[in-house]
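Batch manifest, entry 17 of 40.
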Amino acid sequence: MKKLLFSIFVLLLSIGGLQAQTKLDTLLPVRGFCIAAPESNEIENFIKFINEELAPRQVNTIILRVDYNYEFKSHPEIRDSLALSRKDVKKLVKACQQHNIHLIPQINLFGHQSWATKTYSLLRVYPEFDETPHVKMPAKYAWPNDDGLYCKSYCPLHPEVHKVVLALVDEICDAFESKAFHAGMDEVFYIGHDKCPRCKGHDKAELFAGEVNLIRNHLAQQNRKLWIWGDRLIDGKTTGIGEWEASMNNTHRAVDLIAKDVVICDWHYERPDPTAVYFAMKGFNVITCPWRKPRIAVTQTQDMLRFKEIAPKDMKPRYFGMMQTIWSSNKSFLEEFYGIKVNEKAGENTSAQCFRAMFDEIKKVNTP
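Output type: structure tokens
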């Protein structure tokens, strides 16, 4: 009799756990974490973090910002000096598979081809792809500047650029065994420049949409989905959101020109702007993404759940979930998270605290 009662008790516990998991998967299908890829000698530390921190919080998606930090065989000339090997990547893939975590690689496409005084390897190796070759990288970077330089872009109409970037996309997706790819595409300031012989005079919304759809269509041939950041699809002037978290260079109309199966990662870091509703109304699956302000992240999580609760039936599935974003290096974040190096001046406004606050709020979904 005792064995029977114990078996019933275990069964009830498992049913309760299954019901709680089903509820969480229904309300927040994506519980994500976005961070830069670790360097090769930091992989074991990151896997420890996956096992001990991400999996227990029921994170089911990791966006790993790889960019050119991989030992590409299709274009080895693009590799960065600290590139991950295929063996390194397989360690990460295995760790994520053990916890049913979808590991999605990111390479920044279109924009973000430079940072501060450094040109990244695509334009360094292939300078002919540069949308603005007349803009020279400064010895000392400052914003704003006379050239309007934030980050370089590649020219989406260059006849050779996609032979290179799409080969990188295919290779990195194969290595990560991923059914999705994140193309970045945020903060594209250089687009349709009036000195570009190919892009001059073109509608910037059509240029942006054309690049999104080209990448999306290529991925679809391998049954893969495209994820992008959403800022270029928001009208920064009409909304008052401005030039960073929205567009002031007329790319926002691309929202009506791109395929509806593109997943939108909607980031807002200073205010909980409710643009998830906008993207859902436009027909997109949308994920809200905080960064370093815990109170903002909590509000955004509550909003995502509320939007889903009150939405019409057809819109409910489009509220896809939440994703914490990290914009320091992998190593720096882990040092912050484990208290090895703490920024006392930041107070509570750190990405580590934001991460904890967001997932504490998500935990309440399964709390009676």
